[in-house]
Amino acid sequence: MSAASCLLTEDQFLCSICLDVFTDPVTIPCGHNFLKTCITEHWDIDLPCQCPNCREVFNTKHELQVNTVISEMAAQFRQSAQQVASSSSSSEQQVSKPKEVPCDVYSGSKRRTWMFLLCLLCVFTAWMVSDQKKHLVGPLKEEYEAKKAELWKTGAEILQMIQKRRLKIQEIKHSEELSDEDADREISEGVQIFTALKESVERSLAELIKTIQEKQRKTEKPAEGFITELEQEISEMKKRSTEVEQLLQSEDHLHLLQSFTSLNTVPPTKDWTEVNVHPPSYEGTVRRAVTQLEETLSEQMKKLLPESDLKRVELKRVQQSAVDVTLDPDTAHPYLILSDDGKQVNHGDVRKNLPDNPKRFFNYVLVLGKQSFSSGRFYYEVQVKGKTKWTLGVVRESINRKEEITLSPQDGYWAIWLRNDNEYKGLADPAVLLSLKSRPQKVGVFVDYEEGLVSFYDVDAAALIYSFTGCSFTEKLYPFFSPSPKYGGKNSAPLIISPVNQ
């Protein structure tokens, strides 16, 4: 063999895991060599046991023995490298070049045997290490750098996730603090509101009792005078009766004749036939007190509550008077189509041939509710979503249903309508153009019969649309509905009587 075959390079004595020169090299079953500490640590974290170079897997962890041949060769290589480094200032530039290992380490036949083995092993190791360096060490380092970058990325993502969760914790704590503050504020405001309500109710009750007592005293005073006069007259008549009785029992005839004239006549008395004591009338007293209380409470709540909350409270108040309303098919104009449950009405394409009756509308596409009201309060809601024209309200029972009329209170209609998709009017006399902040999707209708009040509400916005006040109701009132014609499908949505969600 040539001397060149006995030259060893630094790469041939490097561990492919740590890229350091062998000190205690071990050989694993697949034939690859590594530093004992490197492969041990690798196997401790990589289960099952696997070769870092060829990826061969071993089911059991083998006991590792130091490869003495490679260990001795590596020691010789280090010694030679140190000698070269000390004898030449340019040795640093020549580290990567082949360095000779002295072949006179041994002598005789033993020397020749070792030289043959050594040369054979150097040839093999040169190929193996250079090939590993090219095909394994490089990719392993690249994989290491890639994995390292991934770990940095993962670590950064974890830190970011931790930071986000810490911020979320702060956000939750802050929200909790705000929630506590809001709860305390709501409780405080609630206490103020209900304290004011309690005081108002107590004042109103005291005033009601005072009013009733004053009425009672006004009745009691003349009654007591009448009783006193009657008792005085009774006393006088008893006295006269006693004198008459005594005179009749007396034997003194002269005294009887002398007293006859004065005792023979009834003592003067008052004519009580026309005297009457009428009990006081309490009719409407409680009702007026309740109305006054409501007004007082409303004023107080305006001071305590935001306008939006106040509107919602007002709507909730009228919704307490909710009633069930269904459509009356006997009143429906022939063009109208009613649902089977009596909750929806739409304008049809064909005029139906229906029997005429006094209740049915002839000129106007209207339909009434079956229910009538002649006292108290009532409220219902109608969905108008998707419509460009409609009319809603209440009518008195005696309205003209056959001829053309004006929809106004004078003709018995208290109503509002939508025209031209965005033109709202309260149908008073004259009609009032309404400016609404939002487009109502559901309209609430409220009537207080005794107060003469008809109000319309935008349910979703809890806003008052329009009110008729000071009305005089003397007969039954009926809800009425007009979906208006379809106008080529633009107004095809039905009017729907909706359940009231309180």
Number of helices: 6
Q: Element order, helices and strands?
A: EEEHEEHEHHHHEEEEEEEEEEEEE
Structural class: alpha+beta
Overall mean pLDDT score?
A: 79
Q: Largest sheet, order of strands side by side? A: 7-8-19-10-15-16-17
How many β-strands, per DSSP?
19
Helical proportion, percent range: 40-55%
User: Low-confidence parts, pLDDT < 50 over ≥5 residues?
Assistant: 1-6, 88-114
CATH superfamily of the largest domain: SPRY domain
Gross morphology: elongated
List the helices and strands and how they pair.
Layout: E1 7-8, E2 25-27, E3 33-35, H1 36-45, E4 49-50, E5 57-58, H2 68-87, E6 99-100, H3 108-249, H4 253-263, H5 285-304, H6 307-319, E7 336-338, E8 344-347, E9 367-368, E10 377-383, E11 390-396, E12 413-419, E13 423-426, E14 432-434, E15 442-448, E16 453-458, E17 463-468, E18 477-482, E19 495-498
Antiparallel strand pairs: 1-6, 2-3, 4-5, 7-8, 8-19, 9-18, 10-15, 10-19, 11-12, 11-18, 12-13, 13-14, 15-16, 16-17
Polypeptide structure, described:
This protein has 502 residues and is α+β, with helices and mostly antiparallel strands. The chain folds into 3 domains: 3-158, 2-Layer Sandwich (Herpes Virus-1); 184-269 and 277-292; 322-498, Sandwich (Jelly Rolls), CATH 2.60.120.920. The protein is 43% helix and 16% strand. The chain has a 7-stranded antiparallel beta sheet with strand order 7-8-19-10-15-16-17. A 6-stranded antiparallel beta sheet has the order 9-18-11-12-13-14, with no helix packed on it. The chain has a two-stranded antiparallel ribbon with strand order 1-6. α3 runs antiparallel to α5 (285-304). The chain is elongated. The two termini are 106 Å apart.
